[in-house]
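forwarding from the other thread:

> can someone predict this with copper (II) ion?

sure thing
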Amino acid sequence: MLRRALPAGLLAVALTVPCALAQGEGGLPEQDPMAAPPVGEASDDDVPGVESADGMTGAEELGFDAMTEEELDQLLAEMEEEDELNLAGDTDAAGRIELPGDHAPIGVMQDHLHDKGDWMLSYRFMRHDMGGNRKAVERVDDADVLSVDGFGFSETPTTLTMETHMFGLMYGVTDSVTVAAMVPFVEQEMKHLTRSGERFTTESSGLADITVAALVRIYEDDTSQAHLNLGFSAPTGSITETDTTFSSAPDETILPYPMQLGSGTWDLRPGITYTGQEPGWSWGTQALATLRLGRNDRDYSLGDRLDLTAWGAWHATDVVSFSTRMALSRVKNIDGADSELDAAANPAADPTLRAGTRLDAFVGVNAVLGAGNRLAVEAGWPLSQNLSGPQLETDTMVTLGWQLSF
Ligand SMILES: [Cu+2]
């Protein structure tokens, strides 16, 4: 764009004061006090290759050989590039420019690698709100879930709120292998209604399943890269959470599957991630599976799941980007059953009512704050969900995150 706006003579002048343009003003060099002295006898008429009254070309007057247009173009392109770099918001430990869209929207994990020897600490707060039941795509009233003529359960969940505090650590083992660990602490609250109209609430909280993954780069070009996600999760989350329910009072009883904190099994978490950065925007896509290995101590295994997502982010400035994202998730039913749970009493205790497919849409903001700090937020809503039910539907998902690279 500069190329069109500036007369070629001024460009030649600018060469004598590269700092004038390197500062990124993009304005006319003669307005810059630093540029003023050499401009002196040069005027707008001094175009290289065109003779002025005294028989010299503009460039010759300034002590340059005349440049071809191609040479000027190339030089300008280089200067513009330098310009962009100087304007960028922050640099990482290796001195490379950090842009907000270098990282995926905060709801996506294991999306990027780090350079050899670089660390990253992160904290995410995630909240999922669920409320009301569905079977397939249709909503099911609580009365239908509880009615003897309907689904015939004696109690039903009405809402489930899940809050996760996720602590993450990443380390660049080499430039193409990063290891990542994620430690989640979960707090859950489920509200219920019984057939006779009583309401009660159960809670569970604590450490959930810790995930460890190696991110291995398999492809890289100037603007995009791909890596494998070779992860697993350990059965660190409890599957024996108890609380007092309406029918168990005053004793505590084992809570249904969605109120447990872990899977109870070692799970493989293989995946592949492909991301790209273009001037002004970035994009990415990720496929991640969760495969349960065997059955847990309670003689069941949670359903395998598949998560597919794709996003695009517009870099409004060098410090802030705005993203949109779609996510498709598919979960299978539970294999086996916890024999202490009564599947006929509560749909959340029925291992055959856990499957579902959901399509979610998200919007998010990433910000680079300097000194390796990033802040991000993302909120999402299901566009459609098809559930084995009655099963609680998802209403909203919010993730807030802070990341620190060093
Ligand atoms: Cu990281």
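The chain has two domains: 2-87, 99-405. thats all i got for now
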